[in-house]
Records
---
Amino acid sequence: MTQKVHPYIPNMVPKVQEEMLKVIGAKNIMELYSCIPDELKLKENMNIPPALTEYELRRHIEGILNKNTSTKEYLNFLGAGCWQHFIPAVCDEINQRSEFLTAYAGEPYEDHGRFHALFEYQSLVAELVDMDVVNVPTFDWGQAAATSIRMAARITGKKKVLLTKTTAPERRDIIINYGTPDLQFEFVHFDVKTGAMDLKDLKAKLTEDVAALYFENPSYLGFIEEQGPEISKLLKDNQSLMVVGVDPISLGVMAPPSHYGADIICGDLQPLGMHMNFSGGQAGFIATRDEVKFVQEFPSRLFGIVPTVKEGEYGFGDVYYDRTSFALREEGKESVGTQTALWGITAGVYLALLGPDGMYEVGQAIMQNSQYAVQRLNQIPNITGSCLNSPFFKEFIVDFNHTGLSVEELNKRLLEKKIFGGKDLSNEFPEFGQSALYCVTEVHTKEDIDYLVQSIKEVLEK
């Protein structure tokens, strides 16, 4: 059987493959996959169509993408980990610059301002969370949370980690997958009426082998955890670390976790100037105090500023590079791989553009809009606009238990009115029954919210 040379797959020319295999001492390509279990291997030939021209390929891909319905066409109240925020045009303008967009791993000799830009990003996020050290971004919040917890385990030398049950389900799965089998995980209960952490349950589970507690504030369910100082005291008395996940756009109006005792802060940069990209615009950050015990456990790159041999001149480069997996390779604490540095630069642009006053104004606008939405939803018979008796920021649980409709059916009918309704929580949090997580941000107008309320009324009256 003659092997076809595919134009989009490199090194398919038989002669080239033979030379490469000879160099590495392998008889054939399949020998490279000998470690993969046989039951996972595809036995039949793949049905790959003939190669398309560039124009045909573009038409094909655009045809697939055009089947999607975006938030430009429908009114959107979905959040739960990927949120719709206003993106200033300058964010797109700068992150599309060729020296940033095409930069890969890179070293100083091929760097054209990227290290400087990432240093500025780190400085701005550090100011936002009121910490000293911030890393070059990880893949997403889940990765950042999992790495933060791994760091806490290495710092304390303990193997048990507590997670609140209100942790975002997807992040919880990533954390547990990333920590297993080295770490053991246990959940702390919460008050179903308020969402707040059950401190009695926390005390009972704070044994001497607990490395850290991880919780999110604002939480996945939208409520604000107000017991931070009490939680911090319990952890410090037990010599355990407090790891807090945060939505950074909330920090224009909320105190950062460092103010109520957090040792490690992590979160998602997506609200800071990144389009949702069908959930593709994600990047995570980690922040700590400038203490050796924390800094030496960062597996990812950190950029700093140092004087050069020329007086008055400064340069930007890696800090404590020897601690990274790039330097240690297989002996590294973790392997972080390629990171989402472009999104770090974007977040830096967003924060520099808005400044403290702008972040405050955005936070105020979000809170005013979300409060208005809850008040209007409460006016609909048989609906509770926010079923948790706690303050919230931009997300809140809407109770539909007494409407006679499931959230799934309600959302289907809202689609007919060109509305993406809230996320159905009936599977993730069955204790809330037929409830949905709604998200309202600065992009929503009074007219948007009124249209949502009117549409829900019409759906329920049918």
---
Amino acid sequence: MTLVRSLAPASPDLLAPPADDTLPDGFTVELAAGTHRSRDGRLMTGGSPLRLVRLTEAAVRRLGDGRFSVSDAPSAALARRLLDAGVVHPRPARAPDSAPVRDTTVVIPVRDRADQLGRLLGALRSDPATASLPVLVVDDGSDAPAAVAHVARRHGARLLVHPYNRGPAAARNTGLRHCRTAYVAFCDSDVVPEPGWLAPLLAQFDDPAVALVAPRVVALPVPSPGPLDQYEEVRSPLDMGATEGPVVPVSALSYVPSATIVVRRTAVGAGFDAALRVGEDVDLCMRLHASGWRLRYVPSARVGHRHRTHLRSWLAQRAGYGTGAAALALRHPGQVPPLYAAPWSLATCALLLRGRPVPVAAAAVLTGVTAVRVARRMPDADRPARAGVLLSLATLRGTAEQLLRCATRHHWPVALAAAGLDRRARRVLIAAAVADGLLDHRRSGSSLSPLAHMALRRLDDLAYGWGVWQGAVRHRTAAPLRPRLALRMVSRWTGARRQP
């Protein structure tokens, strides 16, 4: 057991960029499932946010049927650009199941919860791939340290002790400072990794620019699930879904939770910002991205997690998550907006909400004009007019859904005040709350009844939104409540060499 005294850590803000982001020979990429290609293969749309990518003829030949391996400098450059656009996914040259698990230390921050720690350590030691890995347990000021020490000793883990509680970020940083391996796997004490979870994550580090990789965090099965168990099974904030992809701010996958992540030790510097008790994982993701590192989410690797299912603690957790939005918005301006939409789509939604013939006609005209503009930017599409209409309608739908979420989540106090003053606003708010709940019930595949799911969805949003406003008041800022406007569509040429 090592007693760790309070030391001034290095600044968490300074992260060095990758020394080299050139993909090695043999590195393979494959077209992402959501990427659409034109018939001649020169035009692709995909990624999040949506990218419009044009390929040179040489690049089209290289990509072929949607999969190719790096063999020279031009193919390495093409693979990198397609990866960064989010239209392809990496496919490691070696099969993840056969990749050796080595040069990795597991760091577990814990405060009491010795039984859960024992369950996690048992899972690590029973998995042949991780049985012999070094494990550091960081006791972050437990009230019953002897129980934690006993469990760590029983499973052959090294124990580091904070004499008082300093928070999960500081506990992870303490473990990080004592690691000497190339990779560090951070696991919270309440997770249970499934067998074979680590190899697919380590395989992603074949890309020298990858700094962080995360598995999917799924709900642990319970014998008799209650309503909250069933809701958390499909709507846990730790579960980022079944779709793999790059982790990029202001996208469908803007961060990954630190419940379980694997990092390249040399990339993360001093680690997490210990000043943050909430949102330290989001902050680390954004700092790594800003420094030029790549981050990946690999849902084929899975860890179980015992979600909170007592209503009071569940609501407190959601509100706590919300309080972190203000600090993140101040640290990373424009990177955690409650809404990210194009001005024309916001104007169109506002016109449609009027519900009268003239505003609705104006909304139709605005959408039509946008569709024409998009089509003109895609003359090489198979059917430019159809592509322009579909993309414009998809954008409009996405904006409408974001507005629904804002009214019922981040900005519900404002929406509620407006509803109290205006009958029309009241009807719109009720319709938004019902529509969002029913839409989420259908998309999530929840086993709850639509009414029960909608009720928990509303409680979830109320608690989180309340936390956002608490954080905004505490920091005296409106930053976490300000929307961000998407002023342009990203378009690029990609090929053997850069085109204008």
